[in-house]
Amino acid sequence: MPTLILLRHGQSTWNLENRFTGWVDVDLTAEGEAQARQGGELIKAAGIHIDRAYTSVLIRAIRTGEIALEAAGQGDMPQIRDWRLNERHYGGLTGLNKAETAQKHGEDQVKIWRRSYDVPPPPLERGGQYDFHTDPLYAGVDIPDTESLKSTLDRVEPYWDAELAPHLRAGETVLISAHGNSLRAIIKLLFDVPDDAIVGVEIPNGNPLLIELDAALKPTAARYLDAARAQVLPAVK
């Protein structure tokens, strides 16, 4: 039966600095590397063979996947990279310290930007330090200036339908090494999570989430491989 493993990247340098990262291409910390390695060791201990691996185009997700696959004894597995698995674009919040932003705009407003389903942060101005329009990674891409979780899902879902779902329907085991919000979007699709509930779903760094699916790609079981760091999951219907 189809099996999906969702792996949120390990701690990044900007996670450590408590900054809004989004599409900024920052690397893992030593702790993030350790989290990725532990995730791969858990996959190996569970005896899981991965048929296909995917990641975003951001280095923290790419390296997490590489480190995890190596630790799982499957280091020769190539990762397919696509920008549609990127983290949510945080718009004008990109690069800002989260605590300082809350002091400036108020905790309630920042909570809306961070946790509402369909209210995006202010747009990122063109020509600034974090303008991605000239980045060759995104040549030919209609780059957003900001995203909500809903608009993140809007770009993830077509990729899921066209690329990911067919391999799962073929009975493959698929690993996706990506980000909190792009993985949250996939969880919303699979578990049919209501709009007001998905924002409360937390995904721990470097802890593989194993989801078993039926032929229609409906979850039949789901669990984190590291039970000690597990978060509450949506109910399997």
Automatic annotation (TrEMBL):
What residues make up the catalytic site?
H9, E87
Record family assignment: Belongs to the phosphoglycerate mutase family. BPG-dependent PGAM subfamily.
Q: Does the keyword Isomerase apply?
A: yes
Binding residues annotated for substrate, in chain numbering = 8-15, 21-22, 60, 87-90, 98, 114-115, 180-181
Please give one Gene Ontology molecular function term for this protein: phosphoglycerate mutase activity
* E.C. numbers: 5.4.2.11
The family database entries (PANTHER family) matched by this protein are listed as:
PHOSPHOGLYCERATE MUTASE (PTHR11931)
Q: In which pathway does it act?
A: Carbohydrate degradation; glycolysis; pyruvate from D-glyceraldehyde 3-phosphate: step 3/5
Q: What class of enzyme is it?
A: isomerase
CDD domains (alphabetical): HP_PGM_like
The annotated subunit structure for this chain is: Homodimer.
Source organism of the structure: Caulobacter ginsengisoli
Give the function comment from the record.
Catalyzes the interconversion of 2-phosphoglycerate and 3-phosphoglycerate.
Question: Does the record's keyword annotation contain Flavoprotein?
Answer: no
One Pfam family per UniProt: His_Phos_1
Protein name, entry field: 2,3-bisphosphoglycerate-dependent phosphoglycerate mutase
Q: Where is this site: Transition state stabilizer?
A: H179
This enzyme catalyses: (2R)-2-phosphoglycerate = (2R)-3-phosphoglycerate
UniProt KW keywords? Gluconeogenesis, Glycolysis, Isomerase
